[in-house]
Amino acid sequence: MFYKNLAEENRLLSLLLLKQEGELCVCEIMEALNQSQPKISRHLAQLRRSGLLVDRRQGQWVLYRLNPDMHNWMQDVLERTLIENPHLLEEPSRRLSDMSTRPIFCSTSA
């Protein structure tokens, strides 16, 4: 199931963004990937069901991060993918940093 999730571009980019940023809310991932809320929420739900992500509520926000109990080899695959393919996150990272309505608590990893 791990590699099947990586095969879908939005799920791969979401995982890599979370690997890079630590924790993000749905609105930040939407902005970074330039996708709609229903589409991003559907992909994040799939990643959560697969055990790759965990979420927490903070007021009206749902924050996602990589599951700290994820197998080490999975963490290594994500790390290596991020290192070997920095171009994958160039545009999403730019969109995220340009986000004018980014919630204050979302701008730091928890």
From TrEMBL:
This is Transcriptional regulator. InterPro entries: ArsR-like_HTH, HTH_ArsR_DNA-bd_dom, HTH_MetalResp_TranReg, WH-like_DNA-bd_sf, WH_DNA-bd_sf. One of its GO terms (molecular function) is DNA-binding transcription factor activity. NCBIfam families: HTH_metalloreg (NF033788), PRK10141.1 (NF007528). GO terms for biological process: response to arsenic-containing substance. It comes from Nitrincola tibetensis. PANTHER family: ARSENICAL RESISTANCE OPERON REPRESSOR (PTHR33154:SF18), TRANSCRIPTIONAL REGULATOR, ARSR FAMILY (PTHR33154). The keyword Transcription regulation applies. It holds the Pfam family HTH_5. Gene3D superfamilies: Winged helix-like DNA-binding domain superfamily/Winged helix DNA-binding domain. Residues 1-85 form the HTH arsR-type domain. Keywords: Arsenical resistance, DNA-binding, Transcription, Transcription regulation.
